[in-house]
């Protein structure tokens, strides 16, 4: 009697297996594009000008290779639809839309792009993935979300990893794309925080004399956060441009729900990243006790509170866009965050074009040693690799080849060369080729501006004392808690120490809720990144 059901189960299993195999074969056949004649000749001129007046007239050559316009235009995806979710326009959302339109034109496939505000993006990506019903084939998002998303992502196939463009991605950004030894994120951007400053003010004899009189020091790009504050304070409220309008010392990202946590970590980096103490800066990697309320972080928040007097009107609620246009438009003397503000300052119509300089993030003259629980007096500088936009393909997508071809096209050499020069796009250097000053000089940048920019960015790649983002499950909860604490201190609702004590308490609760072992395991990936620098 037992043999019949058992035989039946075997039969059912066999049919299921055959059905699954047939479905897989059908899906693979559906994914595979037909071949057609190329629409571009090798080395064709590429420009975005036909897509509107908001795009520069710049032309670049299509670089031969599997991701080029010529190669991708040979593929016929007619009858297939690719679904993409990306950030709101313009930052990363605009290039997503533009390259989707181009991909449609040259492959015949349909590409649907949904653009979502930053505050909603995490949930709209993760919730369907967790439910086993991915709403999108391709996802653009901040790379620090990898701890939440990695289980649902398709590893990047070897043929894409072997493309010339991928092989040129810097080690730091290939590391950022990797989780547990597999590349699961497709690099499209490289983000770091660094200092931007107006050289027309630094080199003005009148301003130099004013600063010398106020401080007894020579005016130069600040090497420490204390110097940054001093320079910002001396010049805030002055009229640099002779147009009767006040200029200000510093523009910072301070809006609670708009990346203020990254601005704060930039300020904290040299106080908390000790070159001789390994093991990460956010948690004790053994106990997972939060370090966010230790003296280095508290000192950074005290500095940030002092800086309020140097901000432009409304500067206590600046989002990233405000910071981009405040420095990029010449309102403020200094800024620190992503490349966007610097590239905005270098747009052809900018009044401060070629009057700016890039430099490393300010450092400190002492750093907190968490091993000895004391301050060590030493000059310390700690570059901050702060998330960066990335992209990935859902493991459950039935259009994986089309999805990876789209990403391959998105990041081809011609598109990236154009995207890098459009400040609002949010696409910043992530390949070694992008550190060549000659590329930027071709865009009309003065040689000294191009060299300050590329040497600052490439120098961060070489540093052995770097800070990377917290990349663990629940990262949005941790960063939201931190942003709330920073905002409370900036608003005068709490002292820096009390605000960060509250953050540490919340971080412990978040860790317990997610699972201490789960967070600790993921956090080791962050510690390894820092150790490999």
Computed structural class: alpha/beta
Return the CATH class of the largest domain: Alpha Beta
Strands side by side in the biggest sheet: 6-5-7-18-10
Mean pLDDT: 92
CATH superfamily of the largest domain: Periplasmic binding protein-like II
Proportion of residues in helical segments: 40-55%
Total count of domains: 2
Strand content: 5-15%
Rg, Cα atoms, Å: 25 Å
What's the total number of strands? 19
- The helix tally amounts to 22
Determine the N-to-C terminus distance. Answer: 66 Å
Shape: globular
The biggest beta sheet reads:
5 strands, mixed
Tell me which CATH architecture of the largest domain applies here.
3-Layer(aba) Sandwich
Which residues sit in consecutive blocks of at least 5 with pLDDT less than 50?
1-27
CATH fold group of the largest domain: D-Maltodextrin-Binding Protein, domain 2
Indicate the topology.
Blueprint: H1 3-31, E1 34-35, E2 45-46, E3 60-61, H2 69-72, E4 75-76, E5 81-87, H3 93-107, E6 110-116, H4 118-130, E7 138-142, H5 146-149, H6 158-161, H7 164-167, H8 171-176, E8 178-179, E9 182-183, E10 186-187, E11 194-198, H9 199-202, H10 205-215, H11 225-235, E12 248-251, H12 260-272, H13 295-306, H14 320-328, E13 332-337, H15 340-345, E14 356-359, E15 364-369, E16 374-380, E17 384-385, E18 389-393, H16 400-410, H17 413-419, H18 437-441, H19 447-462, E19 467-468, H20 475-490, H21 496-514, H22 516-531
Helix pairs in contact: 10-11, 12-13, 20-21
Protein name: ABC transporter substrate-binding protein
InterPro entries: Bact_solute-bd_prot1, SBP
Keywords: Signal
